[in-house]
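pls design
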């Protein structure tokens, strides 16, 4: 099958062509079966072709395939926003808008905070990933490959260290850097918002320091700065609860949603304090495809499945399986390249490192190929692409999860 018509600027992790999938398993066009620990890069927390989602898509497709909500509202959008805002675990009144993706949610959040504060500066964090659109590129805490060759980016944007036990950066170091930023680089009164991932995805599943999160919330309140939580990858049960910000004991002002919001159908959202979402003029928010009826139906079926009981049990089962297996590998000295286990809940990364602690990127590239040949799809992450990002569906059957971990174990042994 020719790929000459596809831009060569799109990077492909696995050079295969998929045909179909069911829950945590996919098959390529040759009929080969794989266990999927990629999950569409965090989109498939409910797995491939979840029956409830498929039924909802099929039923909605017989009623209304599309209508632009800003032209004439439709019932799926209205119902979804009622359900979605109730699903957000905060104490304030919530409203929001639907988008086509997480990046588009981030773009709209930037407009919302500018309108609400009259300020333009944004503070993001090292290692961050918020999208590939022009404005979100500048938020990303990594140059290659996202910012290369695209010139001056929308701003102003400043970056701070992201404190976490997973990367060695401390709360004190991050606060010191923040003090320096506002002493040397920018007036604090010019800052519209901080944007932060409660668990960084692209960086390798790096969990935010709780003490810093609370200090940041206090700082934002003190200086009338808005706090945006990017839950695009960490949300909808990936950490074992609805959203990862809950473990930090804070409430963000705006929350970015996407990926697993709709069981594989393109959809995103920005939600938060109602006064913020209502501050722009009529017509300031919207979009032709945003909140497409079929995507809304898929999202409603997703919320039906994501009860707190389900999320807790799914997250606990997957976390226990991964952690216990990792600990056994460490105890037996499975591989000289087996580094740290990062993340929280079922949102886990496995680092590959050399004896001196430097990233073992070469071995991770080798591992991707070995695992794929053995029938397991893995996803790299981290600044040096040296951390395996485990994103198996939360609904993965226990036996399939163990089979995938067996393959990973065998391949780790083979690293050279």
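designed seq:
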């Amino acid at each position: 099958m020719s790929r000459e018509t596809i831009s060569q600027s799109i990077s492909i992790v696995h050079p295969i062509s998929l045909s179909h999938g069911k829950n945590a398993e996919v098959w390529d066009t040759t009929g080969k079966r794989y266990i999927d620990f990629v999950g569409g890069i965090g989109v498939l927390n409910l797995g491939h072709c979840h029956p409830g989602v498929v039924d909802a898509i099929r039923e909605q497709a017989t009623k209304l395939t599309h209508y632009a909500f800003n032209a004439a509202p439709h019932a799926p959008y209205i119902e979804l926003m009622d359900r979605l805002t109730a699903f957000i675990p905060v104490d304030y009144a919530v409203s929001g808008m639907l988008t086509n993706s997480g990046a588009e949610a981030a773009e709209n959040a930037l407009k919302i905070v500018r309108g609400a504060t009259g300020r333009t500066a944004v503070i993001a964090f090292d290692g961050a990933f918020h999208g590939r659109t022009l404005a979100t590129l500048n938020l990303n805490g990594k140059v290659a490959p996202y910012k290369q060759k695209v010139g001056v980016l929308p701003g102003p944007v400043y970056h701070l260290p992201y404190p976490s036990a997973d990367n060695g950066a401390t709360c004190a170091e991050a606060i010191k850097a923040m003090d320096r930023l506002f002493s040397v680089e920018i007036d604090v009164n010019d800052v519209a918002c901080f944007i932060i991932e409660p668990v960084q995805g692209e960086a390798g599943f790096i969990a935010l320091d709780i003490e810093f999160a609370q200090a940041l919330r206090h700082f934002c309140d003190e200086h009338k700065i808005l706090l945006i939580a990017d839950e695009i990858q960490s949300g909808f049960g990936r950490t074992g609860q609805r959203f990862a910000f809950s473990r930090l004991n804070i409430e963000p002002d705006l929350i970015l949603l996407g990926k697993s919001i709709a069981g594989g159908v393109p959809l995103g959202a920005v939600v938060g304090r109602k006064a913020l979402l209502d501050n722009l003029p009529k017509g300031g928010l919207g979009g032709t495809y945003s909140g497409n009826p079929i995507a809304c139906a898929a999202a409603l079926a997703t919320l039906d499945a994501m009860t707190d009981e389900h999320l807790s049990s799914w997250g606990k089962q997957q976390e226990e399986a991964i952690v216990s297996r990792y600990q056994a590998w460490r105890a037996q000295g499975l591989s000289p390249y087996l580094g740290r286990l990062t993340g929280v809940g079922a949102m886990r990364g496995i680092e590959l490192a050399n004896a001196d602690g430097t990233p073992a990127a070469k071995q991770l590239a080798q591992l991707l190929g070995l695992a794929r040949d053995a029938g397991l799809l893995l996803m790299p992450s981290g600044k040096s692409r040296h951390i395996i990002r485990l994103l198996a569906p939360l609904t993965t059957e226990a036996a399939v999860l163990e089979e995938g971990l067996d393959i990973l174990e065998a391949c780790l042994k083979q690293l050279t």
